[in-house]
């Protein structure tokens, strides 16, 4: 595996620029019907859509010159009108446990983070859906970032494409593929950027391209009720709910969106998601905060709340970040909590924090562009120093 990853390329495309591409149309992130329409608009035959799709998402090609079943003339024509984007790598860090965090620079200069979590010969990619997040969950570093915008579908699917480039994981859908699952647990609330997330996931799941099944994709949400239902109907991916508290009083504080969509409404939405999407089970994420939500009584309440819903509870040791207002529960408390849940018949894995040393673990993500700019704009190594 290691030899296949082009480590030397970890910051390889840093100097490339998308400036000259501004006048061209990006084909990445277009749905199939959008791709057909744009070809028609440029008086190109629509059967080319399948060919292009195949090159882009099955072979990972981002240069029209490499599309060998397309004539040289047409290749030239296509490259005059279109381009196939990739986010640029601003920097990368490898954790002692093999986790790799990439800081990616978008066309407008904003930055996002993408995290590769290897597990033996396979791995999971944790992708971002927004720059920052408008929801201010008290324990989450991303939520403290002021600058927020939705990622485009190209920027969402681009994270997957870029990492597959880095892993040398093309053509896609091979039996030995490295990237075998995706979690939307990076920066942002995916259901606040639903349309772009939907388009990106449809592209990622498409059988003629990257072809990752919906069972291999997990969308994590803090509980945006109207979109949970849509997501069940449209996508049917695995659903993870960031619960973190078992009563509205505490959840209002920890996950402020609870004031709009409370626990009762959330439970109803999850119940119907399970029916609509035919999902096997829902994952409940529960961050362990010392002295806040880690009591035995909380564990018992949790079990009562989810009664009747096929569930798995993911206990997440709180990942600390500078000036965080909480501490992580100690292992005895976490284990006692897990015991109550397991006794009630639910799987209750305690998530091993990955990439903590490079601030790549859950909730630690926050692009450091502003801080870096203050320290030394030219020296990208300052990221390592700051962390
Ligand atoms: N916005 C979505 C997805 C991104 S956050 C959501 O909230 O679900 C992904 C997961 O990391 C969520 O369960 C979130 O609650 C959790 N998380 C956030 N900050 C954390 C921290 N500091 N330590 C551990 N988990 C954290
Ligand atoms: Fe946003 Fe999720 Fe962080 Fe809450 S936990 S601030 S919803 S990214």
Characterization of this structure:
- The chain has helices at 32-41, 48-58, 72-81, 153-167, 194-205, 225-234, 248-254, 263-277, 296-305, 331-343, 369-376, 382-386; strands at 25-26, 82-83, 88-94, 100-105, 111-119, 122-126, 130-131, 149-150, 179-184, 217-221, 238-242, 282-288, 311-317.
- It has 387 residues and is an alpha/beta fold.
- The chain folds into 2 domains: 2-83, DNA polymerase, domain 1 (Orthogonal Bundle), CATH 1.10.150.530; 88-358, Alpha-Beta Barrel (TIM Barrel).
- The strands form 3 sheets. A 9-stranded mixed sheet has the order 3-4-5-6-9-10-11-12-13. It has a two-stranded parallel ribbon with strand order 1-2.
- Strand 5 and strand 6 form a beta hairpin.
- The protein starts with 24 loop residues before the first strand and ends with a helix.
- The chain binds S-adenosyl-L-homocysteine and iron/sulfur cluster (SF4).
- S-adenosyl-L-homocysteine is lined by residues 137, 139-140, 185, 189, 220-222, 242, 285, 287, 316, 318-319, 362-364.
């Amino acid at each position: 595996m290691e030899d296949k990853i082009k480590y030397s390329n970890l910051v390889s495309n840093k100097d490339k620029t998308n400036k000259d591409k501004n006048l061209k149309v990006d084909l990445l992130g277009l749905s199939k019907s959008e791709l057909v329409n744009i070809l028609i608009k440029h008086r190109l035959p629509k059967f080319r859509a399948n060919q292009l799709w195949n090159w882009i998402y099955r072979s990972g090609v981002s240069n029209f010159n490499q599309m060998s079943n397309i004539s040289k003339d047409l290749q030239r024509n296509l490259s005059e009108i279109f381009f196939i984007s990739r986010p640029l790598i601003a920097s990368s860090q490898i954790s002692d446990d093999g986790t790799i965090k990439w800081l990616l620079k978008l066309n407008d200069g904003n930055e996002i983070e993408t995290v590769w979590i290897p597990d033996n010969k396979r791995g999971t990619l944790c992708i971002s859906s927004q720059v920052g997040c408008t929801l201010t969950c008290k324990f989450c570093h991303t939520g403290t970032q002021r600058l927020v915008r939705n990622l485009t579908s190209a920027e969402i699917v681009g994270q997957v494409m870029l990492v597959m480039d880095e892993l040398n994981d093309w053509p896609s859908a091979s039996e030995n593929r490295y990237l075998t699952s995706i979690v939307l647990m990076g920066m942002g609330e995916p259901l606040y950027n639903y349309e772009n997330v939907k388009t990106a996931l449809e592209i990622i799941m498409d059988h003629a391209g990257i072809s990752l099944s919906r069972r291999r994709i997990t969308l994590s949400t803090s509980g945006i009720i109207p979109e949970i239902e849509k997501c069940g109907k449209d996508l049917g991916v695995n659903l993870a709910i960031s619960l973190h508290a078992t009563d509205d009083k505490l959840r209002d504080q920890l996950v402020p969106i609870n004031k709009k969509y409370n626990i009762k409404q959330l439970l109803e939405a999850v119940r119907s998601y399970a029916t609509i999407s035919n999902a096997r089970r829902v994952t409940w994420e529960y961050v362990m905060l010392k002295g806040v939500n880690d009591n035995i009584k909380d564990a018992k309440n949790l079990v009562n709340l989810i009664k009747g819903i096929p569930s798995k509870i993911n206990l997440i040791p709180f990942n600390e970040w500078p000036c965080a207002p909480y501490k992580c529960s100690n292992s005895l408390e976490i284990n006692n909590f897990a015991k109550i849940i397991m006794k009630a018949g639910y799987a209750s894995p305690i998530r091993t924090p990955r990439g903590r040393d490079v601030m790549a673990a859950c909730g630690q993500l926050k692009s450091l562009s502003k801080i870096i700019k203050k320290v030394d704009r030219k020296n990208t190594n300052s990221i390592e120093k700051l962390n």
